Amino acid sequence: MPDLDIIDYANQITCIDTHYQRPELAACYLLESEGEAVFIDTGTSHTVPYLMQLLAAKGIQPSQVKYVIPTHVHLDHAGGAGELMRRLPNASLVIHPYGAKHMIDPSKLIAGATAVYGEAQFAQQFGTLTPIAEERVIEAPDETRVRFGNRELLILDTPGHARHHFCIYDALSQAIFSGDTFGLSYREFDTEDGHFIMPTTTPVQFDPVAWQATLARLISLAPERIYLTHYGEIGTPQTMAEKLSRYIDEFATIAKSSNASPGEQRVADIRNSLKDWMLAELQAHGCRQSADIIEQRMAMDLHLDAQGLDVWLTRLEQA
Q1: Is residue 104 part of a domain?
Q2: Is residue 1 part of a domain?
Q3: Which residue among 84, 103, 123, 228 is least packed, with the fewest CB closer than 10 Å?
């Protein structure tokens, strides 16, 4: 097992590398207050030993963890929730109402992911999905407030990336834990011009109109920083939101510009167009990594984004 890889930020916030796919691709967060703790996102079941190791390193007993809060049920964010809850005797799971049933009975998540990855690859990437007892699950609709210690978290319904997605606003740090709603921004692409950011349009619920409204709502809170699952803390939220808003529209335009047949042909065509867009944007951003290295590191993201855009186009065509 790789070493525990964490970043301690201000306001008792700890970022934990979930070791999903590669280093610094996916994170989850531990928040502390007055002898109580909360996990935001969980990674996969393979991540859980790291989370328990972190608690031990900080002198936190499993019984002190009050909530586990996945931003949504995509497996790189919530795949480990059931196994983590099994080890935290006093914790409740806080989840979007649309996602609750999949945490109680993950059979559809398993079936869907297995259909995409195959059984062997599913097991390698995600491990085992453990059901969570219904009585331990709290459905959190928009503007639910979650309290632990002397800290309060505000849950905000944030469709756009997925309909079952919420973000968490932490008043103490004046920060938003954004899951995938604020896109992805990998630290390896930071330059003198700041952070590079882009949408993540993973299947199957990309909705650019809803996403734009969500971004406007989040920025209206005037956050000082954003904590991304992919990856870590970023500043200048207003600037990042403006870029992300523009890029969401550009992703939609790229998808609509494809003349390929729906399905695999259109996914490949959109992926190639996204790759060209990304390489041009990174070059303009001052990134000096080679095109081959960039494409290698972003291969999974580009493929998932193209798949999601193809699903979105199909939905528009059917409508």
Answers
A1: yes
A2: no
A3: 123
